[in-house]
Amino acid sequence: MATLQYVLPTFWECALLILALLSTSSAAHADTYTLSLHDQVYNQGHTLKLKKMLKKRFPNLNIRNSVINKVTLIGKSKNGQGKAKLNIGEHASNAETLMGRDYNFDNPAAYTFDGIEFNNQQELQHGKWQIRTNGTVKLRKVIVDLDTVERWAWQEYDTFYSRKYGKSDDVLHIDQTVKDIKLTGFHNTAHINKAIVTFNNGKTLNLKSLAGKLMNGESKKATFRNARLIKNIKLYYQPKHKGKNAGFTLDLFTQEEMSH
Q1: pTM assigned to the model
Q2: How many Å apart are CA 61 and CA 260, to the nearest integer?
Q3: Which band of pLDDT confidence, cut at 50, 70 and 90, is reported for residue 222?
Q4: CB-based contacts of 208: which residues, under 8 Å, 6+ apart?
Q5: Is the pLDDT of residue 5 over 50?
Q6: How far is it, in rounded angstroms, from Cα 33 to Cα 198?
Q7: What is the helix (H) or strand (E) element at residue 130, kind and residue range?
Q8: Domains of the chain
Q9: What is d(CA 18, CA 93) in angstroms, rounded to the nearest whole number?
């Protein structure tokens, strides 16, 4: 829900200064980005495409791993009749009034500008990010507060075939942060004798939940209480029935690579 804030000039200028100071010391997962609009005047309806503007102004910003926390629009309208609303995906906020006085419309002083703050209470991130205005408005800047979100996905890491006779072992070099490890049988029946994971700190762990018979179409999973940085995984396996090689895949639930 959007909230409208119209304050005394000196207080609003102080508030903007405090906001700027706070943004420099915000936590690593939250950042503030300012888009200058250079007091551009828009008549009738206009759409600010925030994703496109952010990508152009901040080319290294990872939009895909970001979610809007709040958006602050600084501007004014003729006779206080301008409106603005924030659209995120298919969700639209209520249209809020952008205050202003006709005799101050061409005055560049900060105290003549109003501020509207839109909060993303639904925590939506997919789809378009847009501010839509109506009426004659003059816009100075948009301040976008973004939170970084972690994206996790299953990654099919490798495929294994056992020998028809005897035991096999393989070492997989992972070097990734992992939440879950999953083995899935797809050909005959394998027997997982042991699965040993080595963490980045050198410590090892026997993943007992992955051991045992693994039938075609069956899955076994090992889940870490907290995501762990894994250096490698060593698997010891063999066919359940001699003379019949068995196949299975290993999947990792890992953070998706961040693309800028």
Answers
A1: 0.56
A2: 6
A3: very high
A4: none
A5: no
A6: 40
A7: strand 129-134
A8: 2-148 (2.60.120.340), 152-255 (2.60.120.260)
A9: 26
